[in-house]
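FIELD: query
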Amino acid sequence: GRLEAVTQQMGYHPQYLDSFLKTQHYLMHMDGPLPFDCRHYIAIMAAARHQCRYLVNLHVLQFLRAGGDPQWLRGLEFIPPKLRNLNEINKILAHRPWLITKEHIEKLLKISEWSWSLAELVHAVVLLAHCHALASFVFGCGCEQDEGLGGRGSLKPLSLGNQCFCEATAGNSYSQELLRINRKRSLDSCMELDSLRERMQRIHVETEGRDEMRLLQQDREEGKGQGAEVGVQGGTEHCCDLSAGLSPLVDTDGEVTSATNLACYMQDPDFGYQDFARRDEDQTQVFRVQDYSWEDHGFSLVNRLYSDIGHLLDEKFRMVDGLQSSAMAKRQGCEPSVFKRGIWNYIHCMFGIRYDDYDYAEVNQLLERMLKVYIKTVTCYPEKTNSEMFDRFWKQFKHSEKVHVNLLILEARMQAELLYALQAITQYMI
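FIELD: result
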């Protein structure tokens, strides 16, 4: 249950990594409105929207460790209606967040046997946005790269030993010296198969779930045309076919026993990003930050309904904004703050969020075409990121600068989803 590849990449910016880990730990493992098994299942649903096997695998294992019902891993048809009802806003937030309305919120909160509380819904929304944005980072930094594939040699995940990411919640939890040494090592582009198996062998299903897991294994073996094994895959690009989205499970002896199709965790798989700019020119549909902003509106609402998460999110937004990027900006011929704002506003613009005080002509001046193509792909449909795009974009950037761009994508995307969701909640409350 580790985010080793992610923490390796974020380790190039240790202060941000510390902030990210605190937020991740709080969302998944600290007191909050949602049960722990539900948190991981929501993360699975969110990651599946982008076919992110890396995150799905991680949260499948943590879901079982949290005592989750193994039957739920058969798909959305096997989970409680309350969780299944979250599918609609998961789909919308992941691909077209501007479509979310107070009616979606009202439908989840209405009085019924399966209704959500406001606090539960805010927790779920933050989880969804967090995992959607993290999927962008995973694909953008090559953490999803299958073992043994070429094309991304400079971005290699790293094992940080036995430390679990969720326990590293303070700056001194990671040795910066260790990070500096380990960054220089040349490792495989994904954890070795044997290493993956060894880690899984240490994770055991609770005693009371053993019979269910055996039955689940038999059901899957009977339902599959042929077996699939977690390991080396052929080819040089990500497989975007949902049927190839394999999520390893563990039997009572800790062995990898079966795989499940990512499609079982989502409905309406054809629903994806649609260019906001192609919509009818209706100015009322443009989200103006002057009318609803994170600082003036979103922060206070989310912090009131889910204690302290607002402070953690705000720290993370500020941390990424404060990262040094002088060399990166110099290559683009501008000031660091101007370059970062150009990337941030370009990402928000793709989701229909506009700043009245910004001249959007700057975007085309600051960001070359391949950079824009890369940012849009990683932001809007990260599962389509391929090695050719990756190689063409990275040429003039140092490793830490590549990670920095992906951190900007992660945080800008997450804030965009939160703004739409929290505005809809605010409108419902009013």
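FIELD: remark
The longest strand covers residues 256-261.
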